[in-house]
Amino acid sequence: MFRWISLLALIIFCSQANAYRVEPMVAEMEPIGKRAQMSMRIDNTSQVPLTVELYPLSMTMDEHGNETIEAADNDLLVIPVTAIIKPGRSQSVMVRYLGDPSIAQSKSYRIAVKQVKVEESGANSGQMGLLLQFNTLINVRPKNTEPKLAIKSIKSKDKKWIIEVENSGNSYGRLSDTNWTVSDGIESKYLKGIDISKLIAGTLILPYSTRFFEMQPLNKFNVANLKIDIEEGN
Q: Which class is domain 149-232?
């Protein structure tokens, strides 16, 4: 009996966990012109109506990747802010940048898409549920801005490499958009962006900032003599 109860709970959990999806999860906009506006889509993949609320948030990040978010209603216009989506249907959401059009560096935002609990009557009122929240990432990037990434230090800690990366550019950057030449004077290896993303979790670096990343070590490399050269990827 316990086995069947556990299986039923898992089925309900999974059906709720896949209740909806949001696309795109990552996007880039510009502070002025046609690209100052974009569309998102919320798909209700469940068999019951879905109610969601949307919140624009500004995002900053410290050197360890910890985020600080604040309400950004003055910078981003989101329409609608609340939507009720029928089973199997989709809702289009308009996002428009209303902030300073003359910003000199990229700015990062999140659109929080939060499922709202709706009280139900009847047979479904006591059903187990899991409320989901998706936090999309939007980078507002002016034209003629670019990241400038460089490795500042490499250390070993708890069987991981700790890579300090500086972005001295005026745009956000991603390690997954770069290629690396890794060498310790004896061993040498060339890593493309897709390889780097498998070794490092989270590759975003905001402009004029430094981040420390944990990286899976490469076999046979001596971290004491390690050097990493970064170049822009294709």
A: mainly beta
Rounded CA gap, 143 and 36, in Å?
A: 12
Place of tokens 């300090």: 164
Domain 2-140 homologous superfamily, CATH: Immunoglobulins (2.60.40.10)
pTM above 0.70, yes or no: yes
Q: What is the pLDDT along the chain (234 residues), one digit of tens a residue?
A: 434 333 333 334 444 445 899 999 999 999 999 999 999 999 999 999 999 999 999 999 999 999 999 999 999 999 999 999 999 999 999 999 999 999 999 999 999 999 998 766 554 544 435 688 999 999 999 999 999 999 999 999 999 999 999 999 999 999 999 999 999 999 999 999 999 999 998 899 999 999 999 999 999 999 999 999 999 876
Whether the domain at 2-140 and the domain at 149-232 fall into the same CATH topology: yes
